[in-house]
Design brief:
mainly alpha; 7 helices; about 170 residues; globular; single chain
Length: about 170
């Protein structure tokens, strides 16, 4: 792989993980407000937040195995498209349980993005450049996760809760 193709791949993988983590972080500032408006208790808020990580942790090993067997790119594409669908489903959620199941879906689709992007990065990175490549990848990941609450809070203040979900869906599909 030539240098241009390698750097393009790094950029695409960094952008995919940035968008994914931005979407995860965007909902954090107002998710408790949204869930409380639906009547969620403190315990239910815990379920809503935990369902994302729990579902992600449960499916990640299987996604890794499947991406080794069937190819990596389709999983990233499905993960981003699925994240967009989940964002729109969250708008339609009417109960705390529906919101928890949506967050579970968000975790499943996020599990298709991060580890598979990391595997693609490992596949493409020449020996001796792993630290630099993974450092850049993790920078994109943390920037998305760190800027997500800021962007989400700003969108919430300017345009309301649903605008966040719509923005996240559009970003995931772009």
């Amino acid at each position: 792989m030539n240098q241009l193709a390698y750097h393009l791949r790094l950029g695409v993988l960094g952008l995919a993980i940035f968008v994914s983590m931005l979407g995860v972080g965007m909902v954090v500032p107002f998710l408790p407000i949204y869930a409380s408006q639906m009547g969620a208790s403190g315990f239910m808020l815990g379920i809503i937040f935990s369902s994302f990580s729990a579902s992600r942790a449960l499916v990640m090993p299987y996604i890794g195995i499947l991406s080794d067997r069937y190819g990596r790119k389709p999983f990233v594409i499905i993960g981003l498209a699925g994240s967009a669908v989940v964002a729109l489903v969250m708008i339609a959620a009417a109960t705390p349980w529906q919101l928890a199941f949506s967050r579970m879906g968000q975790g499943v689709f996020a599990a298709m993005i991060m580890p598979v992007c990391m595997a693609l990065l490992a596949d493409a990175t020449p020996t001796g450049r792993e630290g630099r490549a993974f450092g850049g990848f993790n920078t994109a990941l943390l920037l998305g996760l760190g800027l997500g609450p800021l962007v989400g809070g700003l969108i919430y203040d300017l345009s309301g809760m649903n605008a966040n979900f719509i923005f996240w869906a559009g970003l995931s599909l772009s």
